[in-house]
Amino acid sequence: MQELLLEVKGVTKRYQEGSVDTQVLNNMDLQVFKGEQLAIVGTSGSGKSTLLHIMGTLDKPSSGSVTMLGEDLYALSSRRQSEIRNQDLGFIYQFHHLLPEFTALENVAMPALIHGVKRELAHQDAKALLERVGLGHRLDHTPSEMSGGERQRTAIARALINKPKLVLADEPTGNLDAASGEAVYELIQELATQLGTAFVVVTHDSKLASRMDRQLHMKDGNLCVLDIAHLASEAS
């Protein structure tokens, strides 16, 4: 039996601009299980990124709840939410968001240092992760000295440094060429399997989504199960 990791229950999100009220998420329910790879696909503006931000405590729902391992995330203090983001969640974005003045090793180690890990151990763990993602030769290189694919692999290593239970990835291959995107996706699958980390990946790439454990489609703020046969035909 799969063990529940995170649950979104009855989540609605509205944005108010003047007299205009826009509903982005509509009474949404979602369960994420430990170690699974879940793809959420949909067109731009369908609410995918908003859902990911709410799951990661980066944006508050208008109503509903998000529970992770028994804790109602939006009933917690800002400090406790920050601890969960640092310890239990990892984030990967379409753009790597690496700090340009720091090396790959320093960028990956930074979340561990913030978590209170001693510098020597943080750098040791960062080095091991960079070697795991095929960047052992790039430890002392800054982002400007790396290719797009290398920067994104560095961002994946950074997301995993504190051994999170769940990684939230927003279009992680969207800014890469086909070959680099394929390499990044294979890396995500490999690490998810080896480390037992759950991944929720928001993507418009049908080919990548079709190879994950589960696929959901978002349209007009609602989620539905995606027809895997249809998705596979789109990907071919």
Descriptive overview:
The protein has helices at residues 48-55, 78-87, 104-114, 119-132, 148-160, 178-195, 206-210, 228-235; strands at 4-17, 20-33, 37-41, 63-68, 71-72, 89-92, 166-170, 198-203, 214-219, 222-225. It has 236 residues and is of the alpha/beta class. The chain has one domain (34-63, 77-235): 3-Layer(aba) Sandwich (Rossmann fold). The strands form two sheets. It has a six-stranded mixed beta sheet with strand order 6-7-8-3-9-10, sandwiched between helices. A four-stranded antiparallel beta sheet has the order 2-1-4-5, with helices on one face. A hairpin with a 2-residue loop joins β1 and β2. α3 packs across α4 (119-132), α3 packs parallel to α5 (148-160) and α5 (148-160) packs parallel to α6 (178-195). The two termini are 32 Å apart. The model has no long low-confidence stretch (mean pLDDT 86). It is an enzyme of class 7 (translocase). It comes from Shewanella psychropiezotolerans. It is a peripheral membrane protein. GO terms for molecular function: ATP binding. It is found in: Cell inner membrane.
Main beta-sheet annotation: 6 strands, mixed
Q: H/E order of the elements?
A: EEEHEEHEHHHEHEHEEH
Q: In percent, how much strand structure appears in the residues?
A: 25-35%
Low-confidence parts, pLDDT < 50 over ≥5 residues? none
